[in-house]
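User: Sequence for tRNA pseudouridine synthase A below. Tokens please.
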Amino acid sequence: MDERTRLRLDVSYDGTDFSGWAAQPTRRTVAGVLMETLDLVLGAGTATGLTVAGRTDAGVHATGQVCHLDLPAEVWRQHEGRLLRRLARLLPPDVRVRAMTGVPAEFDARFSATFRRYEYRVTDAPWGAEPLRRTDTLAWPKPLDLAALNAAAAGLVGEHDFAAYCRRKENATTLREVTRLDWRRDPDGILVATVQADAFCQNMVRSLVGAMLVAGDGRRPVDWPAGLLSRRERSSEVTVAPAHGLTLVEVGYPDDAAGCARRAELTRRLRVPVAEG
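Assistant: Structure tokens for tRNA pseudouridine synthase A:
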């Protein structure tokens, strides 16, 4: 068997015109566009095993997405110095590969990850979102109180069963550990939620944001989002916030091959495949 090299790709994209990350027949997806371009540059089937840290939904953006793939070692040696620029010329402008790095075979973009961090942007300005930010910022129709948003967020931090906030999948756990959840108001008035966890189940981030927003505008008490954690089924009272306000900004990994291997083994043992956003 030919020697193969594993590569880590750091990827950014504007999710507006993508039907999410995962390749789908007849739909434009980030993985589909990326593999089509790699096949064009390297030859069909040369790059294999594309695996992503978080399968973002349709309309969700990324500035810190991570994936890995495998190439024949000789192909990587031939193209290493120029592949990034060739991809930049051929990829559409709404997706960029910002770095391609050789990594140990133990690195797994999905299972070796120790955390995923998202940000969600909201404006409560009476005129709505600025035109140049309309594709990554949700316009909220009511004034939002920063203190109330952070009070609602505080009750959701920690390890909980987030069944009320997830689209359940058969045999999948909804137990997650949220290590960071807070809001800030930037100088331009935009409210930004930062949400970090070991992993997320499907729709979890946007469901959490949706619950916090109605606490932030006063329609629900600030302890209402945390109160839903006692439920073991998805709550119909929670509205999933629109996808376009959400961006995957960072994925964390152990520093060495042994750490990546240990983390991947632990994740596989504890969880079935994870969906994001």
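The CA atoms of residues 33 and 93 lie 11 Å apart.
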